[in-house]
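User:
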Amino acid sequence: VDAGTRAGRFMLQDLLGSFVPALQRTESWTANLIATAGCVAMWGWLLYQGVIDPLGGINTLWPLFGISNQMLAGIALMLGTVVLIKMKRQRYVWVTMLPAVWLLICTSTAGFIKLFDPSPAIGFLSLAKKYSDALANGQILAPAKDITQMQHVIFNAYTNATLTALFLFVVFSILFYALKVGIASWGKKERTDKESPFQALPDA
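Assistant: Predicted structure:
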């Protein structure tokens, strides 16, 4: 949780900074606290769901852990591949490209299966439809014990489906830009990698 919050805070600041530039300043206590509070609120909500809803919380996220974890590895390998190309180290590209391709194939396939598989035991949307149809007919399906828990199962299934679709969108977006930058850099004779100039933080 600690490492995820730290990394998430930087990513959230970078994202919000596209709309409000002041939030991108990592030396700003205000921007740091806003981004940290946002990350803590997101995983805190999941913990809260686990307390008030025995069918939510960790049960909602557990099916996504394997997919999201390996997707993150695939993203890191894609970025590493682009860096190698920009550094004109093409002979080493296979070291990161091959595992990146394998991870993207596996995780993307798993993501689409979890979204669209017709079996309610596998597909999130199928599970939501099964419980929605049962609820419309006045039926209670296990593990739910009443109508409220039936609604929780449906909500959790749609939450999983939404997060899976979001993960796939992010991965394919990064893949698109990685291919675009990699192909453009491959044809150039000189290195195209550049580091931002050092900027000392102001004294507190």
